[in-house]
Amino acid sequence: MERRADTDGLGALERGVLALERRGFAGPGAKERAIREELDLSPVRYYQLLNALLDDPRALAHDPVTVNRLRRVREARRSER
Description:
Largest sheet: none
Number of helices: 5
Structural class: mainly alpha
Distance between the termini: 36 Å
């Protein structure tokens, strides 16, 4: 996938990660399959990138609804530990 930055400062890969997170997936393994096929990433690398994006102000500006939702989920999981 091309990594050129767009007007928001995010590259195509970063925008692809956020777009994938907006979608719903039916059945186990569907999301991991989409990660491999659409982004050509391992699921581990995908989640590393996603976690970094949640702290990136450019990602928040690009897709505030998705980023804020995922931040809430992350905080809820952290508080359960």
